[in-house]
Amino acid sequence: MASIGREGERGELKRIVFRDAEGKQRTLRLGKCPKSVAETARVAVGHLVIAKRHGSVPHPDAVRWLDGIDNALYSRVAALGLCQPRAGAAVVTLANLLDRFDATIAVKPSTHYKYRQVAESLRAFSGADTPLASITPAHADDWRKTLADSGLARATVAKRVVIAKGVFRKAIRWGLISTSPFAELRAGSQSNPDRSFYVSPESIRPILAACPDAQWRAVVALSRFAGLRCPSEIALLRWGDVNWERGRLTVRSPKTASHEGHAVRTVPIAPELRPILQDLFDGADEGVEAVVPRLRDPAMNLRTTFQRIIERAGETPWPRLFQNMRASCETDWVERFPAHTAAKWLGHSPLIAAQHYLHTRDTHFDLAAGIGEAAANPATHPRPSDRTDEQRSAANPGNLAVLVGCGIGCDPVVSEKVPPEGLEPSTR
Fold first, then answer.
1. 208 vs 210: CA distance, rounded Å
2. What gap in Å lies between CA 27 and CA 20, rounded to an integer?
3. Which CATH number fits the domain that encloses residue 145?
4. Residue 270 class from Cβ within 10 Å (0-12 exposed, 13-18 middle, 19+ buried)?
5. Contacts of 327 (CB under 8 A, 6+ apart)
6. Minimal CA–CA distance to 129: which of 98, 104, 100?
7. In this structure, are residues 93 and 114 in contact, taking their beta carbons and an 8 Å threshold?
């Protein structure tokens, strides 16, 4: 009549699987519990199904089991139609959870907006008055499929699934439910390679020339050659943050301010960026601290204006206009500097950089294959100062050195016994 099922990687989550009076398979999730507790629930559910099917009084063992379980589990049994709702027990609905979650989160406005998008999607799909205990993993699967079929990008669907999983984890923490119907729901990758685009320095030059004034040139250059987030980080940049002598910018990041040690970072002033900043500084009004005062206006539509500038320059607008300029900046830096250094300048980890920022360019393939302009152009090869010891040795076989593994502080020992033929048969 009823059986015990298991969920989770180790089978620690128990569930009761049964067929209702209409022959439809139903599931009652118990959460983490001993096998003996699950067995008692299985027997009780079996009695309740028989009573429901024949319209009879439930077995005393089932009645005692119902009296002993908590309100959260009882409400799920009632939602399956096996008993009447408990007298005086408030039914927690999806709307109750979403409203409480919205009232307790403390996030930035942009993040709050994304949370509300997910809340509205859940309300529209399941219904605001749906009892929380009646939402099953099948509902979660169907909700995700609805998102995917709506035409949203895969990364957007993954992000919304991650948020929904977090909402229901809160419900468990607050004691509203014992297990989450979203626990096993696969989110997928939040990266979207289809929207990645490398913005080359060559394509930026005509765009800079098409900018209407120095402030717009600074916005474009700070995004492309310093990797600043636009508009949040550029809007907070002050002239006091510019160290002309050492060639560095102090950048304040609202996005990572809540993470310890990530509220402020230092970014190098690239040679392409310095004259643009200097020109803006020379023309700045006295007493104005903001590097780009225009960004203080919240009504300014950066994306639309920038798209017009790109088209005026004769270029084609690319996806994620400012994000891809930031990612292109890091791609260039990683080719010259260690990955952890470039990631620190951008304000994230090397893992995040690899997943969401770094581009694979056509010139990489051409250089590796030894074809095309990339292979013929010395500018695409690592500079001598950027090469490793191994690369320098390979470039200068006459200075081959055999490094003896004696630990730190040992000098390289030049070997006189290294044959010049390499792997070729000896001609001696």
1. 5
2. 10
3. 1.10.150.130
4. buried
5. 196, 198, 356, 357, 358, 359
6. 98
7. no
Identify whether the C-beta of residue 13 lies closer than 8 Å to the C-beta of residue 4. Answer: no
- As given in the structure block, the two tokens for residue 150 are 């709506």
Q: Are residues 49 and 33 in the same domain?
A: yes
Give the H/E segment covering residue 39.
Answer: helix 35-54
The letter for the amino acid at 54 is: H
Q: Which residue has the tokens 């000098």?
A: 411
Angle at 178 between CA 173 and CA 181, to 5 degrees: 100
Choose among 354, 378, 377, 374: nearest CA to 364.
374
Q: Per-residue DSSP letters for 227-292?
A: ---TTHHHHT-BGGGEETTTTEEEEE-STTTTSTT-SEEEEE--TTTHHHHHHHHHTPPTT--BSS
**At which residue do the structure tokens 């009004």 appear?**
285
The pLDDT tens digits of the residues spanning 276-334 come to: 999 999 999 888 999 999 998 877 889 999 999 999 999 999 999 999 999 999 989 98
Let me know whether 218 and 314 are in one domain.
Answer: yes
Phi-psi region of 81 (alpha: psi -120 to 50; beta: other; left: phi over 0): left
Judgement on whether residues 107 and 165 belong to the same structural domain of the protein? yes
Closest to 189 (Cα-Cα) out of 9, 356, 330: 356
pTM exceeds 0.90, yes or no: no
pLDDT digits 0-9 by tens, 96-145: 999 999 988 887 787 889 999 999 999 999 898 888 888 889 899 999 99
